[in-house]
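STRUCTURE:
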């Protein structure tokens, strides 16, 4: 994000703003804090596509009746190693936290476990949940169905697939876990949303317009389709993630998936799947950490290509961004700041700029 097109907001001010508005639309204070921590951490980590840029639509869905501000999250099935959770149409961030907490609880008892979720909503950045597991010396998994169908099957001309993201996180002896968090397209649709809000072009390989041709116009791209990473492999990957996220719980898939932005009065019945592999179920944690330390050194100590100063591990850049933005503030685009300030004005909640 270019400095001249953005302003910085402190983490504390941004969190206070979000919590205050969430409570004004009916979310309890404690749950508003949890959702906000999840949401703002994406911005801190530099994943702007899944941060507060989505906040206005979350509020609109609550006001329009499409999302339940006071869900009664419950377990439909529960065993030593698995569970199915019903999110009661609550905010996806909250439902996701509860589901991963339940998986971690089973993991602490020494069980490898998975929790399938139905009746949820868009849950933000997938890495938030896998890092919860990693902090407990567990390898974490999170999968989710996309909140909009904007990818075609390979060879198709109709969007019946979401850009279904997933994350895997490994605990490490270092300051941060090794984290993969990716959607199955060349670029997440959230990045296109950010570009559209700021009026900036996108790379032509990111998406096609409604005519099926590559476009650099972010607004036109939002009317068209995202391009899967790796062609048919990306299509197959997003299909697998979508099936994992829905088939075990009864969440919506395919043509049943509603549009996060367009169908704001009806429940999305979004699905997720969360899993943990406790390290101690396989070996002593110290032995695992020794192997991880060597593995990390093998990667970062590899011979570098010409012009490359440093080899990063997955999740390392985000960890660095988190530290920088905590110190210097979170950059938000001018148009997004205006949108947030206008939303805040409706509730008498200011957004102080750093």
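SEQUENCE:
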């Amino acid at each position: 994000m270019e400095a001249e097109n953005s302003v910085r907001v402190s983490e504390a001010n941004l969190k206070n703003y979000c919590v205050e508005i969430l409570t004004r639309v009916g979310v309890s204070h404690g749950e508003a804090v949890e959702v906000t921590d999840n949401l703002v951490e994406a911005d801190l980590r530099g994943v702007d596509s899944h941060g507060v840029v989505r906040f206005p639509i979350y509020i609109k869905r609550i006001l329009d009746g499409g999302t339940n501000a006071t869900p009664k999250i419950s377990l439909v099935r529960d065993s030593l190693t698995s569970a199915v959770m019903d999110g009661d149409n609550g905010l996806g961030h909250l439902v996701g936290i509860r589901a991963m907490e339940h998986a971690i609880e089973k993991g602490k008892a020494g069980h490898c476990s998975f929790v399938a979720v139905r009746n949820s909503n868009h849950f933000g950045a997938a890495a938030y949940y896998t890092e919860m597991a990693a902090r407990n010396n567990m390898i974490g998994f999170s999968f989710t169905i996309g909140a909009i169908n904007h990818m075609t099957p390979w060879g198709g001309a109709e969007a019946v697939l979401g850009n279904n993201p997933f994350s895997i996180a490994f605990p490490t002896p270092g300051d941060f876990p090794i984290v993969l968090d990716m959607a199955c397209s060349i670029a997440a649709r959230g990045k296109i949303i950010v570009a559209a809000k700021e009026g900036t072009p996108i790379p032509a390989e990111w998406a096609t317009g409604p005519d099926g041709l590559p476009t650099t116009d972010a607004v036109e791209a939002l009317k068209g389709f995202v391009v899967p990473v790796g062609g048919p492999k990306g299509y197959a990957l997003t299909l697998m993630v979508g099936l994992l996220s829905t088939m075990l719980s009864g969440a919506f898939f395919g043509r049943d998936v509603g549009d996060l932005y367009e169908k704001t009065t009806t429940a999305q019945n979004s699905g997720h799947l969360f899993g943990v592999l406790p390290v101690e179920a396989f070996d002593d944690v110290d032995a695992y950490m020794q192997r991880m330390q060597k593995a990390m050194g093998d990667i970062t100590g590899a011979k570098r290509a010409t012009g490359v100063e440093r080899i990063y591990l997955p999740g390392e850049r985000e960890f660095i961004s988190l530290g920088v933005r905590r110190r210097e503030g979170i950059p938000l685009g001018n148009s997004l700041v205006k949108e947030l300030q206008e939303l805040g004005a409706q509730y008498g909640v200011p957004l102080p700029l750093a």
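REMARK: The CA atoms of residues 230 and 238 lie 11 Å apart.
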